[in-house]
Amino acid sequence: MAQIGISPRPTKLGNAPDGFVMKTVDFSDSEDSDALPKQRSSVAYEEILRQRRRLPMYKGRKAVTEAVLASQVTVIIGETGSGKSTQLPQLLLDVDPKQRIAVTQPRRVAAMSLATRVAAEMQTGLGERVGYQVRFQAKLGLQTVLRYVTDGMLLREIMIDPNLRRYTTIIIDEAHERTVTTDLLLGLLKQILANRPQLRVVVMSATLDAETFSEFFGGARILYVEGKTYPVERFYLKAEESNLVEATVKAVEQVNSTQPTGDVLVFLSGQDEIEATAEQLHSRAPNRPNNVPKIWAVPLYAALPERAQQKAFAETPARTRKVVLATNIAETSLTIPGIRYVIDGGRRKVRVYRSKLGLDSLLPVSISQASAAQRMGRAGREAPGKCFRLYLESDYMKMAPHTEPEIALCPVSGPVLTLKNAGVDNVYEFPWIQTPNQRSVANALLQLYALGALDSAGKITKFGSKMSVLPVDPALAAVLVHAVDQEVHVRDAVIDIAACLNVPDLLLTPPVAKQGEVAEARAELFPAAAQYGDLILVKQIYDAYESLVASGAGRRDVRDWCARIAVSPRAMQSVNQIRAQLRRYLRLTRERDQADEDTIDYELIIKSFLRGYPTNTAVGLADRRYQSTVNNQPINIHPSSSLFGRRSAAIMYLEYVFTTKAYARVVSPVELDWLREVAPNLLGSK
After folding, report:
1. Residue ranges per domain, the chain?
2. Cα 339 from chain centroid (whole Å)
3. Where is the Helicase ATP-binding domain (predicted)?
4. H-assigned helices in 97-243
5. pLDDT tens-digit profile of 549-572?
């Protein structure tokens, strides 16, 4: 029996959905079969229909569609396995085929995979009636009535069409993740609804936090759709493990040697941990007993090219166990076939803004209990499963109940620029679902003014409007917009570097035992980096990689070359796609030629980046440390930098990391005169 609970007003939900179930509807399987859409018959499609019949959202289609169509805003709690992401848009189209629907996803992988699945269910080609649009990639057509888009792409559409008149229904999926972009969208949609009373908005969440969304939209109706999952056994570590990668490898090997058939989904915090785990699993293959399955380690993270991401969904070969090594992009929306076991590292990476320092850094943090539950649920989508948590039960009890909204942690200069471009003059009075830290907003306004995005009255400038179009953070956007007016060789080099910087973990952190070897290889192959720093290192690596591929080198040769200098070959494959997209955004047509390459000026490239990062600078001290120009805080060059151990009058850095002390990463040397030219107020009497 499928349960659809409906609440006309926000209600205290408590821990169990029974607290607000107002109506229960029973849908029999015989009713489902009569209502199936009339489509061409095939064995594959019949199997798809059988799968749809079993989904609670499909079984409860009449109650769901009636409730959604009766309200301007509806909040849906859809448990894992309810089918909310794939079924609701189709059910609404069944009622009214003339609708135009956008379904947002926090992650591009989910948007693409959901569009692919729904296109198959609707028996239409991907890019025809069903399509997707994500950063740097789209598959759409004139007939597209259902779009799966990332939050950021819908935000960009609002910049072009402030009332989103293309759509009749907007579905905000995975709202419980509370990304900055999701929160921005909710606030803007609240304003749009006042101008478009016929527009419908559905906010979907996988956790019991619907009351927040309901209250935000003035008491929106809440629906609860039960999930379809199997029981999952849960296991904790008996003692803490100091090395997460080693603990993960040990757990995978143990599952492989002791558990019945079934694939494994491993949650790690980032690409560096994923690559290290995959490497260790690969190196252990020769010593694995013949009576256990082979291990097929498959990475899954946002920066992977689409073809590489699809390997996670491929059928597992015989006598093999697929081990998907994923970040939290596999936590919700995605269903990877065959998963019976989950290994949860209990960590995720989040960009944390330190408003007192005016700096942000990417840090690994503990997940919430809600995220832990989502991860565990991945093991029970198709059959009973097991979840192995690589932390103590006492650590689980210390986790926050829900994931903290990004707006409380992240820098808000990007969101503020977006709001300014959308015509929001007073960002303090914008209807935030959760108001960001006031100091963070003030710092964002000051940064945007310093970059030239805002004028002295706080209005967006023409330069700021150009910045807001680019799908990168404001500092890098300022660099790119400035670079358009530079000489061709400088402009194109800046775009190359910017594309590389937009691929997470392009430069990997080698194991301690190999760090010296990698440093020597980089110094030998890219000598200019020792003088000009990490931005030029990135540029030289990109050029060398392109030359290697153009020469016809085989995949193994390319992989070995990347391993020698600790570069991710998978990440390198994504750079050109991003580079081409940035050029389109900047409306550039002419490509550089060899003459341009021969006249490259590294100092001009660094000065171009200084235009976007004047506050990320520090002046050299006598003891080889540096002092930040903004807050006079001490900072050190990170050991991974090509400038480590070398003194400069001043440095510019793109990343700030705090471990045992403050470190600057992605470092370039700058002249004090350059800094005085770009930001004369920063140096004072220095």
Report:
1. 4-225, 232-407, 470-612, 614-686
2. 22
3. 65-226
4. 108-121, 151-160, 180-195, 210-216
5. 999 999 899 999 999 999 988 889
Fold of the 4-225 domain: Rossmann fold (3.40.50)
Average pLDDT, the chain: 86
Angle 145-146-152 from CA coordinates, rounded to 5°: 120
7 vs 649: CA distance, rounded Å: 64
Q: What percent of the chain has pLDDT over 70?
A: 89
- Tokens standing for 248? 């993960």
* Distance (Å, whole) CA 118 – CA 551: 41
Q: Burial level of 461, CB count in 10 A (0-12/13-18/19+)?
A: middle
CA atoms within 13 A on the CB side of 561: 18
Q: Evaluate whether 4-225 and 232-407 have a shared fold.
A: yes
Cα 456 to Cα 449: distance, rounded to the nearest angstrom: 7
Fold entry, domain 232-407: Rossmann fold (3.40.50)
Q: CA angle at residue 573 from 568 to 576, to 5 degrees?
A: 130
Q: Which of 318, 323, 330 is nearest to 281 (CA)?
A: 323
Backbone angles phi, psi at 510, to 5 degrees: -70, 160
C-beta of residue 177 within 8 angstroms of C-beta of residue 106: yes
Q: Which of 592, 612, 638 is nearest to 498 (CA)?
A: 612
Condensed to tens digits (0 to 9), the pLDDT of residues 264-301 reads: 999 999 888 998 899 899 999 998 998 999 999 999 98
